[in-house]
Amino acid sequence: MRLLFLAASLLLTSACAHNQVSVTNPTTPPATGQVNGPATPAPTSANTVDPVPARVAESDTTSRPLWLKDRIAAVLAERKRNPITRILRYRYGGQTVYYISAPCCDQYSNVFDTKGKLICQPDGGITGKGDGKCPDFDKNKTDEKLVWQDPR
């Protein structure tokens, strides 16, 4: 048994001896000897939790129905959602509809008509396919316009 242990130890140390690894840490000076250069990136204090889009989309504020303005006010009264709420206007099934994105995870997104009546929930839920009442929504929606997105 002791001989087996000795043989295994010898085998392991000889196998690892050729693959030595050099470890550096943030205080190790760069190989060039210069601290400022391409090898040393400048530190950043930018928040990496909430990415900021390069360009904020322009919202179409024309003729928002009152019920939609109330929904926007309700979203702004809550804490910020992740992902943020977006409201898009489309043509679908021969009418103008409003798509309101899901607040999170397995929740449904909603599609409303111009009077605020729920038409369907095209995505979300456990299956990700919504409530099944408008399975062709993604395929047949047209004329997309961003109506509003949470600016926070």
Notes on the protein architecture:
There is one protein chain. This protein has 152 residues and is α+β, with helices and mostly antiparallel strands. The protein contains 3 helices and 5 strands; from the N terminus they run H-H-E-E-E-E-H-E. It has helices spanning 2-17, 66-77, 137-140, and strands at residues 86-92, 95-100, 110-113, 118-120, 142-149. The radius of gyration is 28 Å and the shape is elongated. The model has no long low-confidence stretch (mean pLDDT 80).
Search tags:
152 residues, alpha+beta, 21% helix
Summarize the structure.
The protein is of the alpha+beta class and 152 residues long. 21% of the residues lie in helices and 18% in strands.
